[in-house]
Structure formats: structure tokens, C-alpha cells
Amino acid sequence: MTAPVLEVEDLRVDLRTPRGTAHVVNGLSYTVGAGETVAVVGESGSGKSVSVLALLGLLPARTATVTGRALLDGEDLLTMSPERLRQVRGPGVGMVFQDPMTSLNPVLTVGRQLTEGLRAHGTPSKAAARARAVELLGEVGLPDPGRAVDRYPHELSGGMRQRVVIAIALSNSPSLLIADEATTALDVTVQAQILDLVERLRTEHGTGVVWITHDLGVVAGIADRVLVMYGGRCVEDGTVDDVLERPVHPYTRGLLGALPDLATDDDADLATIPGTPPPPTDLPPGCVFWPRCPVRGDTRCETEQPPLAVVGAGGRALPHRAATWCAEREAS
Amino acid sequence: MSVLVFSLIHLVRGDPIRLALGTRFSQETYDALRERSGLDLPLVQQYLTWAGRAVTGDLGVSFRSGDTVTSLIAERLPATLTLALASLLVALVIALPLGMLSALHPRSLVDRLATVVSQFGISVPDFWLSIMLILVFAGTLGWLPSGGYVPLTEDPLGWLQRLVLPAVATGVVSGSVITRFVRSSMLEALGSDHVRTAQAKGVPTRQVLTWHVLRNALLPLVTVTGVQLAYLLSGVVVVEIVFSWPGLGQLAYQAVRDRDFPVLQGAVLLFALVFLVINLLVDLLYSRIDPRIARR
Q1: What pLDDT, on a 0 to 100 scale, did the predictor assign at position A2?
Q2: What are the residue boundaries of the ABC transmembrane type-1 domain, all occurrences included (chain B) (predicted)?
Q3: What's the complex ipTM?
């Protein structure tokens, strides 16, 4: 692994809500290397999106408290001045949001929305920015970019819009690309095209990628490493093979069990994880997954938080880690 | 619309001829006048005659003064236009900064203050506000005249002095309504995904606010401003009377008092027309603001 582009250490996000303080992200740590893709998976409400919005200071300042460290090329995003943070948004980190229908401004042309980002980061002339915008639209595979540049978002399909959003995110050649459920709203064929596109850009530009999704199929296709989030914590991480082939945490096992398998049983019921995630305003004192856990194999589960510990063979550069008391029990 | 106006007016009790003639007149004069003004004809026929002329721009002749209704309206139009535009200016000067500040700092002191002020502006009757303004600025302080109107061309300073109080009285009311709209539409725009996209691009805050928040909050704003302008243009009757402002509102009021049917019909028809035209203009403006509405 090369030098990390992003190092997140003990990231915590609290949101003030009418029902009390919600502990949405609770001590999240991970690194992303150059040219590496890290997938962050988990159910809705597990804190995936909030954790990346917090990195870029995109949470409402009135209600959100963010602590920890997030080093982008060695510089802490969380303590930056607003002006420095603005400079980093774009050339440092490009972001693709979930819904291409709403993440573009309906009253401005595609070109205008692209050039705006370019000109905010030093492309001086209008003409140069426009030429670059056309080039970018071509790069993300938009047909007839010369004309598309003057179109409004409503004149494009969902897939085309998402390409535009990706073009915007990549316009300033960021060292890190964060994609938050970027393909969830798209149909499968378009999704595959977008994944190919990101894969190509990653290998060509050496961009680090954080891919947030709840689609494990996508994870298997593009990620180098996987981070499973539950209740605002990382409950398991490791290489794709480790996590998808040899899951340790009962939650990860549950997630994988909930995948329909076309190859085997045709009539078997789909495995589900009973219950719902704990409300972030009222997290259990022990393992966050305890209330829904089918195993509950240890006396400490209910009272003591399991640390994220190496499982399986240690001493590797990319260890397989899980936060569960079960692993220990299985090993012994 | 014109049928409604016509029927409503003729439902009003009172004989215009009798009112015009005063107390001493002969039956012959009365009958002659009645015949000349066409009031002896059946109502349907009266309407058809009136409507037929109205479409050619002939709104008839005032029972009271004998002048044509069009000339009477034309005479009053500049005063009403002046007041309406000045009021709208006052309204926007109040509403835009106040609404924007509240939206940018929701639940702050400014926001709470703006809510109180706009709630006051919406609830307070305009005649009461007018009287209070006169009492304070014309009475106690003696800074401004209490009413009247002089054309701009004759006495610019006097024109301005007489314009201030009525413009403030009507502008505060309209401004309060618009403030609410500015606040809510800005808040909605602020919370939208594309604003977050713009921020994530690293676009400077000022630019995000103008191009992604204000620009998108404009649509509902144009609508409500159009409605307010139409309301102001159709003669703010009470305020015009309190300030003896010789506008269309006052003309309509006098016409009601005198049962001057042609004048009243003409004025009300004009008000309806103003609403139609402004709504059309607002719709046309939409397509300039929002490309999704534009014709291909």
C-alpha cells in the first residue's frame, strides 16, 4: 500500500436533535491509500453518509459536533479554516451524492455547474473552463458533450445526470473521491457503466476512492477493502476476500445471509436480521449489535463494548479486524 | 367577470339619478336623465350595451361629472401607479434583507425579531397604520404633510414628501407578507441537495448564496411579489382616502358613494384587468427564471 491519501482517526459525530443528542458516528478509524477503493457498507442509519459529510464540513454547524482527526495528505480536515476547507473541496476531495435528480441545480446549465467548480479553483478564463467542461463530459462518457454542456439537468436522464455529477466531482482531479450511494438510484446497466468509469479513473489517475453503499454486489465488484458499519461504529473491516468470504461479526454474517443467492435454493426464505438498528440517541452500553444478535455468546456482550481486534492470521499489512466477543470464543 | 361586476353593482340600493339631481327637481328632468343614461332599459340590455361599448374601449360617461370614464381613470392612473411602485419598493427594501437574514440565521435574534415585525405588519389594519403615521410624522413631529398629492413635474420635493407616508403604510403590509415568503423559500433552497453539491465543489459561500440559493428562491418570490403589485395597483382604497391620495381607489370609493355606475364598473373592470395582466407577466417571467418551464 502506498502512502495514505486519507487517514481518519477516532471520528465522532454528535447531532443535536429534539429527542436528545444522537451519537451518529462513534469512533470511526480507517485509511484510504492512493489508487485504493474502500467500500463502506451498512444499513440505512448506520452513520455512513454522515461520516463522510462530516469530513468535508457539510453538516449543519448549528447541530453537529465533530471530533477526531481526518488527515487528507497529512492535513487535518476537521481543524482547517473555512477558506482552506473551501480550497480542499474540489481539488482535494471530490464528492458524488446519492440522488442525481436533486444534486444538480435545476436552473443552471450543466456547463455552468461544471465551470463554476473549475473557476473556483484557478481556471481563470471562461473559455478555458468551458473547453475543460466539454472535455470532462466526454471523459465520463456523455454523448455529444459539446451540446450537453449547454443543457439543463432536466433535459438529461438519471444516468446522464449522475455522469455529470461525477464529472463535477472529478473536475479538479481530486486525490480522493467519495461516492455516497452513487449508483443506488440508477438501474443496473447504468450502474455497471458508472462503476467501470470510476474504476478506469481510479487506475488512470491514482485517485483514492471511498465508496459508500449498501449493495454488497457492488462491493465485491470494485472494492479493495471493506468497512462494515453498524450503529456508527466499524464492526468489521479487512480485504474484500476476508470480509465477504470469511465474515466474523454476526452482523456481517447476517448481511451476507440476507443476499438472495440465485445459484442455490429457489424456494428458500431470504434470511433477514430481525429488529431494527438501535436509535443513535440511545445506544446500548455493550456491543451495538447485541439487541439483534442471534449469537450473544458471551457474558460481556451486553455490558462491555468489544474492541476492534485482529482476527485470523495476524501480521499482515491489511489485517482482518472485527469488533465482537464471538471471534475470541470461536478461536479458543 | 364583467357580468359579475355589472350585477353586483346594480344590486346596490340607491338611485344614481336622484343622487345626481339633489333634492329639488321635476319629474320631467328625472325621466329625461334616466332615459339618456339608459337606466330605464331592462338590466340585460343595459349590460349588453355597456359590454359592447367596453370592448371598444368606451366605458361610458360618469353620471356625476359628465366626463368620460376613460378620461377619469387616465387622470387618476399616475397617482395610483406612483403609490403602487413606491409601496412595492418599500416592501422589497424591508422584505429582502429581513427575509434573507432570518433564513440564514434561523431561530436567531434577527429571525425572531423579523417574525414579530412581519406578524405585526400582516395583522395590523392599513387604515390604523396610516392614521398612526399621520399622527406621529405629520402631527407630533410635523416632518411630513398629512396627505395630498402634487405631480412630480411640478414640485419634486413636495411629491416625495407626500409620497413617503402612504407608501410606508401600504409597503409595510406587503413587505411583511413578502418577508415570510423570502424566508421560507430561501430556507427551502438552502436545504436542497444541489446547494450541498455546490459547497462540495468548493465554490465560495457568496457565490453559493447568489447562484444556488437566491436564484432558486426567486420563483416563489416573483409570484408573491406579482400578487402584491396587483393588489397595490388596484387601488389601496382605504389608504388613498386617509391620505387624500387622488388614485383609483379613491375614484372607486367616490363612485360607490355617488352610485356612479359607469365609473365604478370601469374601475372594477380595470382592477380585474390589472390582475390578469400581472398574472400573465408573472407567468412569462417564470419561463425566464426556470428553464424547466420554458417553451421549447
Answers
A1: 60
A2: 77-286
A3: 0.84
